[in-house]
Amino acid sequence: MSSYDFIRFCQSVISDMEWTNEKYLRFIDDYKKASVLWDIRNPDYKNNSKKRSVVAGLAQKYCVEDGALKKKIKNLRSAFHREHHRLTNRKGGSVDESRKWFAYDALRFILDVTGSCGGVLLLCQQPTNCNFYDDKVLLFYFDFGCYDIPMKFN
């Protein structure tokens, strides 16, 4: 059975089935393990064929098309950053645990590469304005008020 046929079969079986919170949490765990998709420090992060292969594997496992899986990832990341912004900008600093989004804790690993506010962590090509995080890598963190803005060094 080709992967196209397999996806069509899966869709026919679960076409009306919504993802449960538990299924989202299992997916987030698999997404975390697939660091090539989210960790800019991963050596294969810019390898698009490797990323496509990982996405295809996850899509097959969860019986969705590649495009639908990418959309789920984008929506989860957006919801996480919205929730993180809401929780970190709360007046008085207290967090009502009962109102926290179900996937918030599971997605906290994203902060390791985006910073606490969802900015952009970049490798510096020009050592001026860079912070030394260790002896080998120059890193610079751009904080754009919790918005991801693509930056490019020439």
What does this structure look like?
- This protein has about 150 residues and is mostly helical.
- It is built from five helices and three strands; from the N terminus they run αααααβββ.
- The chain has two domains: about 5-100, no CATH class; about 115-154, no CATH class.
- Strands 1-3-2 form a three-stranded antiparallel sheet, with no helix packed on it.
- The N and C termini lie far apart (about 45 Å).
- Residues about 115-154 have low confidence and may be disordered.
Number of domains: 2
Q: For the record, give the distance between the C-alpha atoms at the N and C termini, rounded to a whole number.
A: 47 Å
SS element count, helices: 5
**What's the count of strands?**
3
Radius of gyration: 18 Å
Order of strands, widest sheet: 1-3-2
Average pLDDT = 75
Q: Main sheet, how many strands, which sense, barrel?
A: 3 strands, antiparallel
What structural class do the secondary elements suggest?
Answer: mainly alpha
Topology as a string of helices (H) and strands (E): HHHHHEEE
Secondary-structure map with pairings?
Blueprint lengths: L2 H12 L6 H13 L14 H14 L4 H23 L22 H4 L5 E4 L7 E2 L5 E5 L12
Antiparallel strand pairs: 1-3, 2-3
Structure described in brief:
With about 150 residues, the chain is mostly helical. About 45% of the residues lie in helices and about 5% in strands.
